[in-house]
Amino acid sequence: MESANLLFPIIINPRLLLRLLAAMIMIFVYGCGKDSNTVVIDFSKTVAVERPGNPTHRRQSLRVAVGAMISPKETFIYYNQLLDYIGGKLGQEVQLVQRKTYSEINELLGKGEIDLAFICSGPYVKGKEKYSFELLATPQVQGSHFYHSYLIVNKDSHFNKFDDLRGRVFAFTDPESNTGRLVPTYWLSQIGETPESFFERTIYTYSHDNSIMAVAKALVDGASVDALIWEFYNHKNPVFTSKTRIIKKSEPYGIPPLVASRYLSHQLKDRIRLLLFSLHQKPEGQRILNELMIDRFIEPREEWYNSIRKIQRFALIKKNTDALEKP
User: Fold this and answer.
1) Position with higher pLDDT, 314 vs 38
2) What confidence tens digit (pLDDT) does each residue in 187-231 have?
3) Closest listed residue to residue 84, CA positions, set 43, 114, 39
4) What 3 state SS string does 152-200 have?
5) Does the domain spanning 43-142+255-304 belong to CATH 3.40.50.300?
6) Cα–Cα distance between 103 and 24 in angstroms, integer?
7) Which residue of 76, 90, 108, 244 could cross-link 113, Cys pair, CB 3.0 to 4.6 Å?
8) What is the average per-residue pLDDT within 27-55?
């Protein structure tokens, strides 16, 4: 069995047909809308960005991506406020960019078509060398710079442990998500299973919001989600989280960071760091952070992401081993 994109599922039986059609409707209604306060750039309709070093080029705006996969949709208005604050201090216009997948954001960062991005920890570790982006800052949440993956099921279901989901329908967020795909796949590999062998079918929702809603509405049997986003909703608006249960919690991983493109000047990177690190000391900055449920921004360390590197190395070794064992 192969994993299917939620938008194009391969139907196996009538029961799954009804459930997946419902999931499609839910995702289109809740997952495809764009916040009216969000500036969305279509890079297919823009000219190529000139590279630094051209003396006639003058940067007109700072382009920042906030992955819809790592941030509750309700927070985009506050990210806009955060970026407006930074832009005001820098004397530059800031544009907020959205993309559906982590890989799209990473590629745009690598090309210099995005200057900054809040990205998932998994794609950061995987893409750091390939795209040469740089750690700028990490949010501190509830006194910690770590987060977890939650394995969730519907509150009214009889599932109490991971093995109870054998032969069921499971939701991943993004193919490169740490908490939304890499972690549960790692759990399965530890018991000699793969998503294809363990689940009846898997789907991609392309946001943790959608995965939580899919479980709450019993459109899927389980999902692995970012604990920060689950906790955000559980505190701010528990209409869906209240209909889910956490049955497994992962080890800690470095919180999704803010990274910069290699084409952004060192001077501008340093100015942005200083603004972020002092944000919690300013009344306006503290208000924005409170809405985002972030304590403050702190200087990140590479070793915080070593636990993710361990999982990625394990997955690569297993993939190569499986390939060698095939006849």
Assistant:
1) 314
2) 999 999 999 999 999 999 988 999 999 999 999 999 999 999 999
3) 39
4) EEECCCCCCCHHHHCCCEEEECCCCCHHHHHHHHHHHHCCCCCHHHHCC
5) no
6) 22
7) 108
8) 35
Q: Where is pLDDT greater, at 22 or 148?
A: 148
Please check whether residue 188 is in contact with residue 255, taking contact to mean a CB–CB distance below 8 angstroms: no
**Residue 152's closest CA among 76, 217, 87, 103?**
217
Other CB atoms within 10 Å distance of the CB of residue 68 = 24
Q: Pull the structure tokens for residue 29.
A: 């209604």
* pLDDT category of residue 176 using cuts at 50, 70 and 90: confident
What is the Cα 39 distance to its own chain's centre? 19
What tokens were used for 108? 């745009």
Report CA-CA distances (Å) from 92 to 58, 121, 218, 275, 287: 11, 28, 46, 14, 22
Per-residue model confidence (pLDDT) at position 69: 55
- Amino acid symbol at 25: I
pTM score > 0.85 for this model? no
Strands of 35-125, DSSP E: 61-66, 93-97, 116-118
List the chain domain ranges. Answer: 12-32+146-253, 43-142+255-304
Say whether pLDDT at 36 is over 80.
no
Do 12-32+146-253 and 43-142+255-304 have matching folds? yes
Closest CA to 271 of 89, 125, 139: 89
**Assigned superfamily of 12-32+146-253:** Periplasmic binding protein-like II (3.40.190.10)
Tell me what pLDDT residue 28 has: 34
